[in-house]
Amino acid sequence: METSGVEVERGAARQYADCMAWVEVAVKTNPRIRTLMEALESKGCPMRVGVNLLCEPCAGTGLNGGFDAEHAEAVVCQNAVRSQAKVERILAHELVHAYDHCRAQVDWSYLPHCACSEVRAAALSGECSLTVSKFM
């Protein structure tokens, strides 16, 4: 069965709408994310849904999300998420990178800086919790 371009476009639009709705709920209700958002705000680096908290398609990349240092954007890959919980884990992880970028002016081309930020993001986002599945 072949999928038309219109059906694919509708699917992407639905993924985007779901993802952004989950991001909005996370920002309003998740204590870890709220704390990170407040910390970023206090350092002069506010994060806003739809401005620099975004959902984007990342098909074929194998990514769940990312932090774009050039634009100070935390991105959730809309095609990689199917639940509120997964969006919250990804968003918390990327917000730690945003905080590191804001607070420490991380040199993302220097691997020790990247490694340190990844360890912090994994630890502070809850990824290292014994209750979080390896196969989120």
Describe the structure in your own words.
The structure is a single chain. The protein is mainly alpha-helical and 136 residues long. The chain contains four helices and three strands. The chain has helices spanning 5-29, 31-42, 84-104, 111-125, and strands spanning 53-56, 65-68, 73-77. Strands 1-3-2 form a three-stranded mixed beta sheet. Helix 1 crosses helix 3. The longest helix has 25 residues, at 5-29. The radius of gyration is 15 Å and the shape is globular. The model has no long low-confidence stretch (mean pLDDT 89).
Structural class, judged by helices and strands?
Answer: mainly alpha
Q: Shape, please?
A: globular
Secondary structure: number of strands? 3
Largest sheet: 3 strands, mixed
Strand content: 5-15%
Count of individual helical segments: 4
N/C terminus separation: 30 Å
What oligomeric state do the depicted chains represent?
single chain
Notable traits:
136 residues
Give a summary of the structure in a few sentences.
The protein has 136 residues and is mostly helical. It has helices spanning 5-29, 31-42, 84-104, 111-125, and strands spanning 53-56, 65-68, 73-77. β2 and β3 (73-77) form a beta hairpin.
